[in-house]
Predict the 3D structure of the following.
Amino acid sequence: MSDCLFCKMVSGEIKPDKVYENDRILAFRDINPQAPVHVLIVPKRHIPTLDDLDDGELAGELMLAAKAVAEQEGLAADGYRTVINCKGHGGQDVFHLHLHVIGGRQMSWPPG
Ligand code: AMP
Ligand code: ZN
């Protein structure tokens, strides 16, 4: 998808602040962090929303990448928040599936 921001991160057309990568997944720092650590994990393949995800193996890889990023960023002991916003009511702004990993401060519940 040539006009997709996160596809441009994957292709290197826009350089992300990369924290983790494998053949199917890229993780980079959010440009507008909501906590001391805020990382986005994306599949390299363009998948617009969680609703479009049909690859269970990839879904598992995204979750395991979240765990690995949390460990790497020093969040594992105190805990962290993972979020996938889906479509309008979910508050999704970028339509390339991404998993937020947010930590380094106390989170509250429920979300706004
Ligand atoms: P969402 O609202 O779930 O679609 O989240 C989109 C996220 O992408 C937001 O947290 C933005 O701050 C983040 N974002 C937007 N543009 C960039 C960028 N160029 N680099 C890194 N993160 C970005
Ligand atoms: Zn994309």
Remarks:
- The radius of gyration is 13 Å.
- The chain has one domain: 5-103.
- The chain has three helices and five strands.
- The CA atoms of residues 60 and 66 lie 10 Å apart.
